[in-house]
Amino acid sequence: MARAVDPTTSFDYVLKADREEDADCVTTWKLRPLTARQLAQIEDGTGSYDPDTGQVAVRQGTVVLETLRSGLAGVDNFLDTKDSEIEFSTENAGKKHGLTVRVPTYSFLDKIHPDDRRELCNAITEQTRLTEADRGN
Fold first, then answer.
1. What is the value of pTM for the model shown?
2. How far are the Cα atoms of 21, 38, 75, 83 from residue 10, in angstroms, in the given order?
3. Which end of the chain is more exposed for a tag (fewer CB within 10 A), N or C?
4. Which ranges of 27-111 does DSSP label H, i.e. alpha helix?
């Protein structure tokens, strides 16, 4: 049986490196699955082909950032080097269905370690692409 993906709901995610820590000490990321359109736009922008040279380029870093901009909904207990909580900063990304769309700022994403950005990106896309087991097949 197929199961629906609901991109309007978020889910909590703890980085693998934090899972052995006390629950009070971990950073909890609020993630949401991507809509079909968001995923298509990100996938469409993943690569380019230069017919003159035959070179194929994959824009993996851009995919990670755009996935986080679409799928990162918030964070709790994200601390800076002085143990002060970092505010989840967002910016206006336009309107959709008459509502203002807010996405994390690039300056906020800059504060996330590159390995953690990749892990969060993978968690978002994994939730978006349910496995056969998740679908009940």
1. 0.81
2. 23, 16, 11, 26
3. N
4. 36-44, 60-71, 106-110
